[in-house]
């Protein structure tokens, strides 16, 4: 589990194509300082498992499913990436609960600079748009952000100088893809409500039967 508070701006060192998967080697001295084989590190919001670490770098195997569902397949050697280690139980939850399981990708449509911030518009699939609400949380390339405006096929976010300076969102251009993870609580609520209507009817019927038995 992650919080969407990026710890380090890392870099892709090399990518080895393994046919149905790829092995990434990434540089991140901070996130590898206490990492070991089997640990998790979020790369642009995608939870990856560490294969090995050495000299401030780590390798991770990326399966075809991940390459298809995220923008990691578009990365090349030299690409900058957002890195975050999993949250520690008992620590502060600075962003929101993030699983590192990307739901899909969006595309940066507009960037509007302000005096001390920047407004960014991102278009996204309709299947994900229903989970995005104004003032709600969303993860963009692993960064926990608050939604400013939520449309039918887009949303906007406001980026402060710290986010622009310390994450890849400061260098992304219009047309670039970004990984999106919506709030998992919204998905659970939707599923529970979808099934709950039938369950509620069953409870009402049971109440009627008990009333008749009195």
Describe this protein's structure:
The protein is α+β, with helices and mostly antiparallel strands and 214 residues long. The chain contains four helices and twelve strands. It is 21% helix and 38% strand. It has a six-stranded antiparallel beta barrel with strand order 1-2-5-4-3-6. Strands 7-8-11-10-9-12 form a six-stranded antiparallel barrel. The longest helix has 30 residues, at 184-213.
Order of helices and strands: EEEEEHEEEHEEEHEH
The main sheet orders its strands as 1-2-5-4-3-6
Mean pLDDT across all residues, rounded?
A: 88
Q: What is the CA-based Rg, rounded? A: 20 Å
Largest sheet: 6 strands, antiparallel, barrel
Helix content: 10-25%
Q: Which word captures the global form?
A: globular
Task: Extract low-pLDDT stretches.
Answer: none
Oligomer: single chain
Total E-strand runs: 12
Beta-strand residue fraction: 35-45%
The span between the termini is 50 Å
Q: Which class best fits the helix and strand makeup?
A: alpha+beta
Question: What is the count of helical runs?
Answer: 4
Could you provide a short overview of the structure?
With 214 residues, this protein is α+β, with helices and mostly antiparallel strands. The chain is built from four helices and twelve strands, in the order βββββαβββαβββαβα. A hairpin with a 2-residue loop joins β4 (46-54) and β5.
């Amino acid at each position: 589990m992650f919080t969407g508070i990026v710890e380090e701006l890392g870099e892709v060192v090399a990518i080895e194509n393994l046919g149905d998967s790829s092995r990434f080697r990434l540089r991140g001295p901070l996130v590898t300082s206490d990492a070991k084989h089997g640990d998790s590190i979020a790369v642009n919001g995608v939870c990856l498992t560490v294969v090995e670490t050495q000299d401030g770098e780590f390798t991770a195997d990326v399966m075809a499913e991940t390459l298809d569902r995220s923008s990691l397949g578009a990365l090349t050697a030299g690409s900058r990436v957002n890195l975050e280690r999993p949250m520690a139980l008992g620590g502060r939850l600075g962003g929101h609960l993030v699983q590192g399981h990307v739901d899909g990708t969006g595309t940066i449509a507009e960037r509007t600079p302000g005096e001390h911030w920047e407004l960014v518009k991102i278009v996204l699939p309709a299947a994900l748009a229903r989970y995005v609400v104004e003032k709600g949380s969303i993860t963009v390339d692993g960064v926990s952000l608050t939604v400013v405006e939520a449309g039918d096929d887009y949303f906007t976010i406001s980026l402060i100088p710290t986010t622009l300076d310390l994450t890849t969102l400061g260098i992304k251009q219009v047309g670039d893809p970004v990984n999106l993870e919506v709030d998992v609580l919204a998905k659970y609520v939707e599923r529970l409500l979808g099934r709950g209507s039938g369950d509620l009817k069953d409870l009402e019927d049971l109440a009627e039967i008990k009333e008749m038995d009195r």
